[in-house]
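== Fold encoding ==
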Amino acid sequence: DGTPRRSVDTSEEEWRYLPCPVVPGKVNSCTFDIELLADYEPPIVVTYEVTPFYQNYYSYQQSVVFAQLAGEEVSASAVVDGCKAEPSRERDGVDIFPCGLIATSVFNDTFEFSQVMLHDNDSQMVWPSDYERFHNPEDYLERPNTLWLHERYPMLTDAARGVKSRRFVDWMFPSFFGHVRNMYGFIREPLKKGQVLTLTVNSSFPVEALSAEKRIIISTRNGLGGR
């Protein structure tokens, strides 16, 4: 709604953007003006939050085949065993890669500011040990009857990166809380109190049926990585 909520830590502000609903079959773009309530020095962390959103169910967290994400050859029986929910394995007779409830529920809203650059896909934003676990398979883009990640989530990744999208890697490590809060990107220039930023949200991630809300958070980085 464009109205900031201040945290106890004065280096953080957050905004809900519920008035930007998902439109079936298309990306709904909405624009908000944000007036900052404090000065911020770079690096400035931009984070998204979905709440409530429960990734901590056992069936959700176990619905993944990590060998797929590592680019290894996986048998059909291993896919069925790891991704038990059929809609997470195939769509209209076409195999989904990678399969699983986590990989088929990825947050894919995007953000941009008119006045400052938002750096949003730097692989250094995740732990190198996590990022290096993800690889596309040897027959990537050549395997028949396969629906690849970039075809399902073009706002998240492209054919060149596939599963090596930093935001996808983040999502594949579920939260144990009743909400998801992940880093989206960085602003690398100072922001001043009273400055107005024009935020464009490209809304693709549906939350209305969950009675959840989506937020974007701006905070200064500290020794713990943010907030």
Q: What stands out?
A: The longest strand covers residues 28-35. Helices lie at 58-61, 66-69, 76-82, 128-131, 149-152, 166-171. Residues 76-82 form the longest helix (7 residues).
